[in-house]
Specification:
Elements lengths: L2 H31 L5 H8 L4 H8 L7 H11 L3 H4 L12
C-alpha cells in the first residue's frame, strides 16, 4: 500500500468537505438574507436552532448532523433536496 497515495486522497476528500460546507453555507445565507431579516431576527422568529449554530452553518464552520440540515431546510421553507441540490457528493477514490 502506498501511504502517500492514500494521504493525497484523504486530503482531497477533506478539501471537498470544506468546499461543500462553504458552498452550503453561502446558499443558506443567501436564502436567509432573501427574507430581509438579520440572523438574530430570523432565528428568533423561526426558533428550533440557536443563533450560534445558524451562524456556523452560514460560515461553513462545521461538519453538520443530518438533523441540523433538515432543520435548516425546514426553517427556510424548502426541502432538503432543494437545499443540497448543487452540492457535489462525488467522493470516489481513484485507483
Amino acid at each position: 500500500m502506498n501511504y502517500f497515495y492514500n494521504t493525497r486522497n484523504i486530503t482531497y476528500m477533506q478539501q471537498s468537505d470544506k468546499n461543500n460546507s462553504l458552498k452550503l453555507g453561502r446558499k443558506i445565507k443567501k436564502l436567509r438574507v432573501s427574507t430581509s431579516k438579520s440572523l438574530d431576527a430570523f432565528v428568533m422568529e423561526k426558533g428550533g436552532m440557536t443563533t450560534a449554530t445558524w451562524s456556523r452553518l452560514e460560515n461553513g464552520k462545521n461538519d453538520f448532523k443530518l438533523s441540523t440540515i433538515i432543520k435548516a431546510a425546514a426553517l427556510l421553507g424548502i426541502t432538503v433536496s432543494e437545499l443540497v441540490s448543487d452540492i457535489d457528493f462525488d467522493y470516489t477514490l481513484e485507483e
